[in-house]
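tool_call: predict_structure(chain=1)
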Amino acid sequence: MKRRYFKELRFRQIRALVELKRRGGFAEVARQLQLSVPSVWQQIRALEDEFEVRLAVARGNKVELTDDGHLLAELGEPVVDSFEYLRRTFAERQKGLKRKLTLATTTYLLTYDLPPVIAAYRKAHPEIEINFIEQTSHEARTTFEQGHADLAIVGDRLLAEPGSHYHVETITTYNTHLICPTGHALLKAKRLTLAQIARHPLIIQNVGELRENATRAFAKANLHDFDISRSVDSLDLIASYVRMAYGVGLDTISPAVIADWKESSRRDLHLRDVSNFFDKEMIVMIYRAIGHEFSHIKTFRETVNRVMNLQSKTS
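tool_result:
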């Protein structure tokens, strides 16, 4: 007899037989196990193939177990009951486990965008321990893909496309801005051009790909005499160099920073969106598309989307 190996003995088949013994009909078993009646029949037939006996026979609208069926159901009943006990006990003890979440992200995101997210999540779930791995976007992406983080929130500029086993979700956009002192000519220009920007020394962050992006944009416009006078580590350093008259700043800036700009000590500096000349930067959340996702990780993702969406509406 040809055996159906895809129907080998499994717990669900024994459970179907035990439920059939208890309930006496395929329709009742199907409702209990949330299966179709044909699926229940398949479970029983798979057991019959495995043990090479007849376990159940239909008599009119009723189904009766054979002697072999009763014997196997009696032997399987403790297994089914033990599994249900295991499920309940696991659920009860699981509540007492210390859950951890590890997020790989950038220092910039942790400084400007993620604090409201983290605060909201910790307030709702103080029992969850959150660990951060602070790296560049590329390094954080690698850390996540190597399995050392549960999630990554990074800038996706020039990052390779992820495989089908990852989800990538855009959570916010950083527009590219000039940072200039009050009254600067680039702020006054009604129809700003790349040629006007190229006349001024530029101060750019050395983290990320904005420098390469700017170089490409100027080259495409046949402007080869532009000057990147400084490459620095942070937006605050860009602002300091602009104040010291080393040039004008160029950076992709978080909506959260833009919203707070006038409330900070940067009132002497002003922003001008130049995303029409330079690429925007998409900030994405990367998480696994295969395997079971723990509820506390899913809840964190939902918190990121809710809070970041609220921030974008108020910025």
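agent: The first strand starts at residue 56 and ends at 59. Proceeding to next step.
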